[in-house]
Amino acid sequence: MSRPWPLLVFDWDGTLMDSTTAIVRAAQAAIADLGLPLRSDADICGIIGLGLRESWETLFPELDADAYEDFVDSYRDHFLLRERARSRLYPGVREVLVVLRERDCRLAVATGKSRRGLDYDLESTGLGELFDATRTADETRSKPHPEMLLDLMAHLGFGPEQTLMVGDTEFDLQMAQAAGASALALTWGAHPESRLRAHGPAACLDDIGQIPAWLEQIEAELAEGG
Question: Which of 11, 14, 74, 168 gives the lowest tally of CB atoms within 10 Å of its CB?
């Protein structure tokens, strides 16, 4: 049976890890610590998926870049010491990844997290062994630039037509578009479905548990088409 996307690349926060609330709380606490202009929860959700510097520049374009390091230090303190423990894998994530591996899919991660943060999560969740490669925002250019995804494809030996990016933000979908890859949106993360659909994903699913059946349907349609 034809398999359209032998490489599946997953975002982390908001896609595999239910961490949106923790990220928002840590960012709000850092903003308060530094006496910065208030930003709404929606504003912060809107930048989830970007690297920390790009998030800062989006939230505070009017402020001097020198304050960036103070913001990052405060954000990391709040997230690592208080909020990260609240994050959990979404239900069914581990089971779905195992099923996809059993179907001979290659799996990777492309995330706006730092390498240190992703490695901690991979170890603490026990998911590290399921991924063939991972890339973070401090190793490549931040989403939505395609470098992160292009680097993974080149490293693993797949072309854009063989790659499906799975994410919960428009930055994931924009990255896939820029790389020439397909994209699948999950609606349980940071960005609303309307914002995701505007970027033309192959589908919008409400639950990661729907992915295997959705892929089977696509493969069956390809087989019927010859």
Answer: 74
Options 1.10.150.240, 3.40.50.720, 3.30.70.20, 3.90.1010.10; CATH for 20-86 is 1.10.150.240
Domain map (residue ranges) of the chain = 7-18+89-224, 20-86
Catalytic residues: 11, 13
pTM: 0.93
Rg of the chain (C-alpha set): 17
- Rounded Cα–Cα distance for residues 226 and 221 (Å): 9
Q: What pLDDT is stored for residue 140 in this prediction?
A: 95
106-119 burial, b if ≥16 CB within 10 A, otherwise e? bbbbbbbbbeebbe
Q: Please identify which residue in the block is written with the tokens 């020198």.
A: 66
CA dihedral defined by 160, 206, 144, 142, rounded to 10 degrees? -110
129-145 average pLDDT score? 96
pLDDT band with cut points at 50, 70 and 90 for residue 226: low
Q: Find the mean pLDDT for residues 182-198.
A: 96
Q: Which listed CATH number (3.40.50.1000, 3.40.50.12780, 3.30.70.260, 3.30.360.10) goes with 7-18+89-224?
A: 3.40.50.1000
Question: For 63, which DSSP code?
Answer: S
Q: Is pLDDT at 187 greater than 70 in this prediction?
A: yes
- pLDDT over 70 for what percent of the chain? 99
